[in-house]
Amino acid sequence: MNAFGNNLDGRLQRLEAKNSRLEEDNNRLREENRLLKLQIEEFRQKFFKKDIPPPEDDDPSHPPKKRGAPVGHIGTTRKTPDHADEHVDVRLNQCPECGGTDLSACQRYEDHYQEDIVLPQVRVTRFRHHFYYCRHCKEVVYGVGQGELPGSYIGPVAKSVAAFLRYQMKIPYRKVRQLFRELFNLSFVPSSGPGFDQQIRNKGSPLYEQLRQSLASQPFVHADETGWRNEGVHHWLWCFIAPNRVIYHIDRSRGGKVVAALLGKQYAGVLISDFLAAYNQIQARKQRCLVHLLRLIKKWQVYFAGDRQRYQQFAHLKKQVKSIMALSQQMAAKRPQRFIDRKADLIAQLRRALRVTVGHPRADKFLRKLSGRINELVTCLDDPQICAHNNLAERLLRDNVIMRKITFGNRSLYGNGQRNHEVLMSLIQTARQLNLNPLTFLHLLLTKPAAAAALLLPAPASSR
Known about the structure:
By secondary structure, the protein is α/β, with parallel strands linked by helices. 48% of the residues lie in helices and 10% in strands. The protein contains 13 helices and 7 strands.
């Protein structure tokens, strides 16, 4: 009996050990399954449109909504121009219906206004420089004509239009060359396009550096980054936006040293960004993008889709974050009633929501990190100028993303294309922030750099 009992005990221990291993394998497979579902959801959102379910009351048997304006909507037409550059009397000698020629004029007439464009033609200007001898400096001198770019065979209007098409309309150099040849009858070699950009960059580099150095003194800065290529090597394009200032910087690094180089290791303003660790390297008040936080929370909801309790915990956290965003938006328009009390209540509720543990190592670590940086989630409630999101930086990165898809980045061995992109895109977007016409600004930058600089960086008023 003892031998039989010992045999049963040994078998029981082996079964218990096997059962324990199976439970561990089962838990591991469940974890891997959740991670795979999360990755599938991320790829689906990245490559496909959002899956918007039809409303519950949607009945396929009902006819679709009628197209066009709703009933009672007052229609409008294009506004009548306030002037006419050309007047044409349209008279008849023959009836357009029957071909008859016995026509008598009526007192009635009707005006039809039509707006069109006049394609510009190449205008050749000969600047004849007359030389003079200066008795003061003992030199032979000559002047520069109005609108003349010394040593340049293509004028400032054509160069500014080419740069506008390249950096504002995202047209590749060869397409710009084709457009100039077919619309304007102006030809130039393919290498001239980058040369135009470099000439504008040389004029605008001092202004770019002034804008860049002024970032550290601004009350707040939006920051974001995206991938970039230079000669096939991966870089990062950084975007920093302050009031009436937009700075782009291309760097190999995605680390905190880039942020410190532009803002300083101790920034006195508020840094608005996502949760990239590089932004932790400088000392500053921070506002993390709450829209990014909502996306992270949604990933955890997808991860815990089969766990009702944990799913509801993250749904509650999502509700608190949305409440903070709503109060911040109300504050930007007009300070709401009982604002101090509502602000304190929301922060307290958020703090309690972040202190809850869900019994999952990675999820609890995520909540602990947020709890340790809770002040960076509610800075938007201290100042109406501080946004709860980083939408501005993402929108101003969008033009670069589109350009990257078309041009695949820069192809310059010595960094000229990269530097051209930094300077020209920064100045164009800064001009747009100031409601200036980018094309007009580029022309002014080529011909009168000091006047262009005064538009972007007005001189401070002198105190008396």
